[in-house]
Amino acid sequence: MRDFIIRRLLYAIPTLVGISIITFLIARLSPGDPIRLFTFGIKDFTQEDYLRLLHAYGLDKPIPLQYVDWITNALRGSFGESLIYHRDAFAMLVERVPATLQLAVAALLLQLVIGVPLGVIAALKRGSWVDGAIRVFGVAGHAVPAFWLGLILIIVFAVQLRWLPSIGLLTVGHDQWDIPDRIRHIILPAFVLALTGIANYSRILRTETLDVLAQDFVRTAHAKGLHERTVVFVHALRNALIPVVTALGGILAALVGGALVIEQVFSWPGVGQFTFQAAIAKDYPIVQAGVMFTSTLLVVSYLVRDLAYAVVDPRIKVG
Amino acid sequence: MTHFRTTRTFFVVAAAALLVATACTPGPAASSPTPTPAESAKPQQGGKIIQGDISDIATIQPILSADTSSSRIINLIYDGIIQQDYKNGEPKAKMATYSISPDGLNYTFEINAKANWSDGKPVIAQDWLTGLKLVGKSQKTVRKSSFQDVQGFLDYCVGSSSSGCKGTAKEISGVKIDSANPKKFTVTLTKVSCPAIIDLNGYTLPTQVFGKYATDTSKDEIDTAPENTNPTVFSGPFKFSEWRKGDQIILNKNPDYWQGAPNVDQYVVKVVANQTAIANGLKTGELTYGSIQPKDLADMQTVDSVKITKYQNLGYTFISWNELAPTAPALADKRVRQALAYGLDMDQVIKAVVFGEATKQVAHHVPVQWAYPTSPLEPYKYDKAKAQQLLTDAGWVKGSDGILAKDGKKFTLTISTNSGNQERETLAQVAAEQYKQLGIDTKAAPEAFQGLVTKLTTGDPVIEANIIGWSLGGDVDPYQIWHSSQIPDRAKGTTGFGFTGFKDAAMDKAIEQGRNPTNGDCSTAARKAQYETFNKILNENQPYNFGYANNVLVGSQKTLQNFDPASFSQIWNVHTWWIKQ
User: Which of A151, B215, B291, B435 could anchor a disulfide with B440, C-beta 3.0 to 4.6 Å?
Assistant: First the structure.
């Protein structure tokens, strides 16, 4: 197991280096100059001022040298100073990680808590109207654009019914540890973020459960006179869950990456929104830190998936 | 002063930033207008203001600020020594009274005796000097050039060898503090500069906090000072409490504010993703006030709890014509540019693009500025026949395909604008359609704002026409946009905002006399006379289709009293705001 982890981590190094080079080049070679952008129109700003700032941010060096500087510092844990905020880019990103993780974890829980039972119920009620309704929900969950659904839910539940808030993660003036208030704020964005996953899991679980229920060991369990609930939840479900675990690999990273739209709609102060705005502003250090953060999360989550896979299915050997 | 208005957050940034920091500050109670019925009621104490803003702040250090969101917070916690009138922008006293010597070179300020820092220490001249020294020390400020006319500043400041900063002096010789009165000081300029009074507002910062970054041995430590994001001592109506990054900025009332403690307990800026979220937040009551879009106006007017306030934006959206574009030589002809003004129904455009919430512009200064021309200008009312006649006079004749041509070359035109800005993209499309009706083969070309900015400021000839906006804050001086020295020159490697290539000797002279008058007369009347000439020349030559000046639409809860936002400041009287329970 230890060799497996070490090997996978070693494989990750060229992947991350490749990503860093691509991100760096895309950022630097795309049209526009960040200094020109954030000083545009500023009174009495001169060409000399421009050159001074270019030098101060190290942007007057050739691009390969800029990359070497950046990667060297990144290995020491410094992703550079934000051109806009004049603060350490990675530290600023880390400040936003809790908000995004909070949203991603809540969405993940909703996916499992709603998606898995729906799939099992659909399988057990195969052919019934319940099955049909869940399948329609599954298609709709994939088809509905997140930004549209988010706006509709805001109009219905925040503007019209006034049941839930529409903005951010905490009511202004409330304590940071006001958990009930946080839950009220997270319900709508987490549901929208989770919807595709709920649809996905219900579909996967339905198919897998039907498949497992038709296998010999389930018939044997029935023949032994085991209770239906025991057969389904102890014998069948554990096997049916294997593909779900596979799908879970990377899901957290995908949720973090996919939270961008949701963060925009619900004004959620997370990593996605922050990185997106930095990209528009050509704030290179933040963009690079953001991409490297998400990439690393993805690599690690795939590693965790492989390990979890082995735990769920002992037939799979790691190493 | 001037700067660009961009699509969003950050973009607004660049442009707006600077002015606002130096210009738009709250005003003294003495300058308040006649009280309205609401104002005459006894203010209730307590409650909080929650302002919705689509951008998080970047810093709380004024010398580093380059965006409007940061500038607003800075203006709430640090008072300036002067301010601009919130409605017409004329400079006037705030924390200090001021006088100017007859030769226009010496500015004497005396800080109000009641002005204290929140730690109880008096605000003194040294605090203003500390701010100026920090600008000189910083490597990342965008403000150094604003003080280059202060005697001795270039000897003091540190910068690249080409910036003029020598870093040889330990003091700034042009700033003299009255030895008998620590609240009084004089600033000497090297030449008469009418816009200087706005710049000389400077940055009055607590020496007891920031003085350590402005010592003889200091380098650029101020650029990364922890107090830049967590300030501790204040002179404004509010005190900084907490910055929850990307979410909210919380300010508490300053009970010792020299103009009187604010009525509300807190001022909170809630960061939201966009103006749709602001509209929703106003409806749900989560926000106290915020700017909304024209498209949401009709909907918001149906919300009983919300009041809409309109005022004219301090800027305008325009189409620039690049006279130097080799692929569109027609733009160098004044008759063609006039035809492009007559041939675009701007009144119709305003209805279609911004739902009627704008005023047509035909010259540079906008109606809310004191320099706005009062002599009659050509209004360029939509007149297709006149436009066609002007094009014919210029030698452009329609071919069999309906496209104008001259000397065998067809009249084609590409109008660039920043993609993602729906208003400007629509304007480009409408303009293209209407110019096609004149026989001009026109197309709209949205592209990323980041790239566009560089092309414009470096004079890239590929840009034929471009839609963008100016935010005009600070002084009315149009030098950086319209003086011929500001035309970018690729051969010389110079940059600037004169990307139309238009120049006129008489216009240059009017700009110079409005900025650095040879007779030293910086009175409003004398300068206005120069700007009448300046605007007249622009109006006749139409280097831009001057487009329109938008209305700013602000939604606020009806419980918010004394809220009186205007073009030069939304928060000028914030300490008198109160919440009706």
Answer: B435
DSSP-based three-state secondary structure for B122: strand
Output the CA angle B343-B346-B350, nearest 5 degrees. Answer: 155
Lookup: tokens for B451: 């790239």
Do B280 and A52 make contact, defined as CB atoms within 8 angstroms? no
C-alpha pair distances (Å), B304 with each of A285, B289, B570, B578: 45, 14, 22, 19
DSSP B312: E
User: By CA distance, what is A51's nearest residue in B?
Assistant: B160
End-to-end distance of chain A based on CA atoms, in angstroms? 6
B457 → closest Cβ in A36, A172, A265:
A36
Interface membership of A195 toward B (CB under 8 Å): no
How many residues are listed for chain A in this entry? Answer: 319
The count of C-alpha atoms lying within 13 angstroms of the C-alpha of B559, restricted to the half-sphere facing its C-beta, is 16
**H helix runs in chain A, sequence order:** 2-29, 34-38, 47-56, 63-75, 89-110, 116-124, 129-143, 146-153, 179-213, 216-223, 228-230, 237-240, 242-248, 251-265, 271-280, 284-312
Q: CA angle, corner B464, sides to B461 and B468, nearest 5?
A: 110
Q: Are B1 and B477 in contact (CB under 8 A)?
A: yes
ipTM: 0.76
Return the H-helix or E-strand segment holding B77: helix B68-77
Q: Is residue A174 less than 8 Å (CB to CB) from chain B?
A: no
| Nearest chain B alpha carbon to A49 | B163
Q: Is some CB atom of chain B closer than 8 A to the CB atom of A282?
A: yes
Looking at the complex, report in whole angstroms how far the Cα of residue A149 sits from the nearest Cα belonging to chain B: 14
The SS3 call for residue B360 is strand
Residue A25 DSSP SS3: helix
Tens digits of pLDDT across chain B (581 residues): 444 444 333 333 333 333 333 233 333 333 334 444 444 578 999 999 999 998 889 899 999 998 889 999 999 999 999 999 998 898 999 999 999 999 999 999 999 999 999 999 999 999 999 999 999 999 888 888 889 999 999 999 997 655 688 999 999 999 999 999 999 999 999 999 999 999 999 999 999 999 999 999 999 999 999 999 999 999 999 999 999 988 899 999 999 999 999 999 999 999 998 888 999 999 999 999 999 999 999 999 999 999 999 999 999 999 999 999 999 999 999 999 999 999 999 999 999 889 999 999 999 999 999 999 999 999 999 999 999 999 999 999 999 999 999 999 999 999 999 887 889 999 999 999 999 999 999 999 988 787 888 889 889 999 999 999 998 888 999 999 999 999 999 888 888 899 999 999 999 999 999 999 999 899 999 999 999 999 999 999 999 999 999 999 999 999 999 999 999 999 999 999 999 98
Cβ-proximal residues to B411 (8 Å cutoff; 6+ apart), any chain: B330, B396, B403, B404, B405, B439, B440, B441
